[in-house]
Amino acid sequence: MNHFLETWLPDPLLRRLVIAAIWIILIGGVMALLRQRIFSRIKDTENRYRFRKGVTFMGYIIILVIVLMTFQVKMSGLGLALGVAGAGIAFALQEVITSVAGWMAIVFGGFYQTGDRVQLGGIKGDVIDIGVLRTTLMEMGQWVDADQYNGRIVRIANSFVFKEPVFNYSADFPFIWDEIRVPIRYGSDYMETEKMLQRIADTYLKESAEVAKKTWASMVKKYMIEDAITKPMITLMANDNWVEFTLRYTVDFKRRRITKDTLMRALLQEVDASGGRIQMASTTIEITKFPGKGA
């Protein structure tokens, strides 16, 4: 092949360009074949994503090595040229360089990984891709209440991890603490209300609390942190308008909204079935004195 190219392409630079192009086309074809033959057969979403990223990354590495081997040049004087150009390049591409460093910190430092739910600079969402320069999120919130996607895809420069805090909802402890507050009228049966909330917690939250307890135990071994209470807790507080019961519990970060919906439906059914012994409260205004006619 080399003899053929030397005959038809006597210019060494042009010949190297053709050889590099042929190799790039071949490697691209192999990558496309792998995606077509194997990628479609992988059913698991996470494994499919990792396979695609791995094939792409390896392809780029092989192409880079082949290009360097094809365009072999003498290294004398190259170091000086690179040193002179390095300062200008570093200044012009400082954001890019910081983003690459951020990518390395994310991958090797365990900031987050694909599938995690994070908050970066006020932007909350699930990580759907981690590139060399940017992290891609499926955004939550804004005009949509609770932990629901709003349909926007947000790309954030990886350099962000060096500038502001990174909030991860699902790293080592994929549970969050949530609570519902139940306002009860004065004169209701408070003991029955507490028993009602305990029945609801035992029915819908017991399994989640047990899993959270085991997960938290590994957190205690890994970090300098105290042993927290993961089982549901019921507390009471009285104010000017009502007696407020609070049910605090741990829940999977992906099931926060559906769990609260389930608890509130069960709560309303229990209140209706109490025969008036438990009454939900609302804001009330008490008029203590009417103004006189001349006022």
Describe the secondary-structure layout:
Elements: H1 2-8, H2 12-37, H3 45-70, H4 78-92, H5 94-109, E1 117-120, E2 123-130, E3 134-140, E4 149-157, E5 166-168, E6 175-184, H6 190-204, H7 206-222, E7 233-238, E8 243-252, H8 256-272
Descriptive notes:
The chain is of the alpha+beta class and 295 residues long. The protein folds into three domains: 2-71; 95-168, SH3 type barrels (Roll), CATH 2.30.30.60; 175-272, 2-Layer Sandwich (Alpha-Beta Plaits). Helices cover 47% and strands 19% of the residues. The chain is built from eight helices and eight strands, in the order αααααββββββααββα. It has helices at 2-8, 12-37, 45-70, 78-92, 94-109, 190-204, 206-222, 256-272, and strands at 117-120, 123-130, 134-140, 149-157, 166-168, 175-184, 233-238, 243-252. Strands 4-3-2-1-5 form a five-stranded antiparallel β-sheet. The protein has a three-stranded antiparallel β-sheet with strand order 6-8-7. A hairpin with an 8-residue loop joins strand 3 and strand 4. Helix 2 (12-37) packs antiparallel against helix 3 (45-70) and helix 6 crosses helix 8 (256-272). The longest helix is centred in the first third of the chain and has 26 residues, at 12-37. The radius of gyration is 31 Å and the shape is elongated. It starts with a helix and ends in a 23-residue tail after the last helix. 13% of the residues are buried. Residues 73-78 have low confidence and may be disordered.
